[in-house]
Design brief:
With 677 residues, the protein is mainly beta. The protein is 6% helix and 41% strand. Keywords: Membrane, Receptor, Transmembrane, Transmembrane helix. InterPro entries: Ig-like_dom (IPR007110), Ig-like_dom_sf (IPR036179), Ig-like_fold (IPR013783), Ig_CD22 (IPR056386), Ig_sub (IPR003599), Ig_sub2 (IPR003598). This is B-cell receptor CD22.
Length: 677
């Protein structure tokens, strides 16, 4: 409300002397600037000679603020308009709180009045904590930014904890509520108003006490662990979570406390009498809790020496067995490579061939009984590995999974069951130029030592650098542009987590034959784990593929040695695969036993007669004469035939197929083959 102060010293027409204050009271923050203004008037015929502002003091003469030592350099009168005056005070102090009045002097009059001017209150900021400054976690705490008078314009408040702004605390309310309060809220708090963040209140300290609790079940350990030799030193350790911190006392079962109270108990020269069950008790002002029993097994030195000797012998035996297994494995690999190098050549074994040729000879195409089969070279176990064949852009080869009937032997990381790596298979055999996927699943604890486990790195490798560190295949120059490594989503069940990772190698080369190991690294202490041995990959040569332009087989001649007829076995290529070969052995007086031998595994076999489908099965009985040529292929890779066996091919016949009484009958010229459906 404007206060109009008028003093009539005499009428000058209708004019008089007046002073008006637009604001009666003001509340301003300490340290900020302030403008106080008023309007005044006097008769027009009077000349204004002097005007000024003063701080009203009872029973004291007015004093111009610009000459008042208490306002030196802080009070000024900005440029004024006629009939209006403004007092500006900077860097306000609490002592500036007072009533301020304006006066003027004319040529024949001095303004004086007993009426009030503008009353100013200068206030600072103060933090108040309720209920108290020291609280227990879980309570509700309210911090209030207090002033001695309500500030004008309702400013926004900003809160600070330990000299840093509290996120999201700026708002028109002058309170900060912590509900529930926690130990992280403890610290020094201050407040300020917007636009003046440098003018903060004094700090107020909030202390948050943790909830007190009795000790949890203590955990106990012994060092060194395992069997304890008589005369050695043993230390027992105990720990428990408690607030306030727990004290510890050690006991032997059915006896009083042993040694001095403390978290660790050391026996410097242990004897068999000191062996047995021990436990510790953790206690504080809230309560106490006993640990589980810890058994100390003390053995005498002679028993210890015997145990060491037995263990040494056991280690030596295991080492010998391992070396023997490695020797046998290498020997088998050499035999396999030797056999692989010999394949694709004409079979020089000469089989007697009967002179007469028979027509309309019914032959049952079947698998040879196990007793009749001759053992073929030992093959490495091939297990469930997805294989992609891609020989060229123009040749489409189907994707297939090489599922082997042989039982899979999985390789896993030895040691703690919480950390394992399990490979899908331990041996893989694949064709040169194809793509192979090698997979594993690794397992680790979700949390250990109160630290959540994070997987930092996964990699596949076959060799180490000069510092004996694994060389990641992704950065190995021998695999540039041919390898990809991917891992699936993490699956956690209970306290363990699992993750599957897959290594894909494209355009396989024979130099890729190696043992592939998987390694993963975590944030846990000593958190690098490698499963060794890994997956042994064998890459075999798929051979060159070409097609006979004539669509048939080149004519060959039979030869005779010492008066006996022998079948000359020839290589008749039609997309031939030298890692498949047809082995010939006598069946009976008129037929031969043909066995399709594969280096990699025991896959499903398809037989072809002169390039046409004939039957399925590992072995067949065949009558080889001038019109017969036989080859085999693995199901799913029909365009990669084995080298054919034949006598000669002066002419070709056409194969026809029909189903008769649940048999598939194949007729080639005058010869019939039947295969049960």
């Amino acid at each position: 409300m404007a206060l109009f102060l008028k003093y009539f010293s005499g009428l000058q027409g209708n004019s008089c002397n007046t002073v008006s204050y637009p604001t009666r009271t003001m509340c301003v923050l300490q340290g900020t600037p302030l403008d106080i203004s008023c309007t005044y008037s006097h008769p027009p015929d009077a000349t204004l000679t002097h005007k000024y502002w003063f701080k009203w003091r009872a029973n004291q003469e007015p004093r111009d603020l610009q000459s008042d030592s208490g306002y030196e350099g802080r009070a000024e009168y900005p440029v004024e308009e006629t009939g209006r005056s403004t007092l500006r005070i900077t860097d306000l102090r609490v002592t500036d709180s007072a009533e301020y009045r304006f006066t003027f002097i004319t040529s024949y009059y001095e303004w004086k009045s007993i009426l009030h001017g503008t009353t100013l209150t200068v206030t600072g900021l103060r933090v108040e904590v309720t209920p108290v400054a020291t609280v227990t976690e879980g309570q509700r705490v309210t911090l209030t930014c207090i002033t001695s008078c309500p500030l004008a314009d309702k400013p926004s408040y900003i809160w600070y904890q330990n000299n840093g702004p509290v996120t999201g605390s700026e708002n028109p309310e002058n309170q900060l509520v912590l509900d529930p309060v926690s130990p992280q809220h403890a610290g020094s708090y201050s407040c300020s108003v917007r636009n003046y963040p440098h003018l903060r209140s004094p700090e107020e300290t909030l202390t948050v006490q943790c909830t007190m609790n009795a000790p949890q079940t203590p955990s106990v350990s012994v060092s060194p662990s395992g069997e304890v030799v008589e005369g050695s030193s043993v230390t027992l350790s105990c720990s428990s979570d408690a607030n306030p911190a727990a004290n510890y006392t050690w006991f032997k079962e059915h006896e009083d406390s042993v040694g001095e109270p403390g978290q660790n108990y050391t026996i410097t020269h242990i004897t068999s009498e000191l062996g047995g069950h021990y436990y510790c008790q953790a206690h504080n002002a809230i309560g106490r809790h006993n640990s589980t029993l810890l058994f100390i097994n003390v053995t005498d030195k002679s028993s210890s020496l015997t145990t060491v000797a037995v263990r040494t012998v056991a280690v030596l035996l295991v080492t010998m067995v391992i070396f023997l297994l490695i020797f046998l494995w290498m020997r088998r690999k050499r035999a396999s490579r030797k056999a692989c190098g010999q394949r694709g050549r004409p079979d020089t074994g000469e089989e007697p061939f009967p002179g007469p040729e028979y027509e309309n000879l019914p032959l049952t195409n079947r698998l040879a009984p196990a007793a009749q089969r001759e053992p073929i070279e030992e093959q490495d176990d091939i297990h469930n590995v997805s294989i992609h064949i891609s020989h060229s852009e123009n040749q489409e080869v189907p994707h297939r999974s090489a599922d082997s009937p042989v039982q899979s032997d999985r390789a896993a990381l030895q040691g703690n069951d919480d950390w394992t790596v399990t490979y899908t298979s331990s041996n893989v055999c694949s064709l040169r130029g194809s793509t192979v996927d090698i997979s594993c699943t690794f397992k680790y604890p979700e949390k250990q030592h109160d630290l959540s486990t994070t997987v930092l790195e996964t990699l596949w490798f076959t060799k180490e650098d000069r510092n004996q560190k694994p060389v990641d295949l992704l950065s190995d120059a021998d695999y540039t542009g041919r390898v990809e490594s991917s891992c699936g989503e993490i699956s956690c069940i209970g306290s363990s987590c699992n993750r599957k990772c897959t290594l894909s190698i494209r355009d396989l080369r024979q130099s890729d034959s190696a043992v592939y190991n998987f390694r993963f690294k975590t944030n846990q202490p000593g958190g690098e784990h490698t499963a060794n041995p890994g997956v042994a990959l064998t890459v075999t040569d798929a051979g060159g593929a070409h097609e006979d332009a004539g669509g048939g087989l080149p004519p060959q001649q039979s030869r005779s040695t010492t008066g006996l007829n022998y079948v000359v076995l020839h290589l008749c290529h039609l997309f031939s695969d030298p890692d498949l070969q047809v082995k010939v052995s006598p069946w009976d007086d008129h037929t031969k036993h043909l066995d399709c031998d594969s280096m990699c595994a025991n896959p499903p076999i398809i037989w072809y007669w002169n390039g046409q489908y004939l039957a399925q099965g590992r072995s067949i009985g065949a009558y080889i004469n001038s019109i017969n040529s036989y080859s085999c292929a693995v199901e799913g890779y029909e365009r990669l035939h084995s080298p054919s066996v034949c006598k000669s091919t002066p002419s070709l016949s056409t194969a026809t197929h029909e189903e008769v009484n649940n048999f598939r009958v194949t007729k080639i010229g005058q010869i019939k083959y039947q295969n049960q459906l």
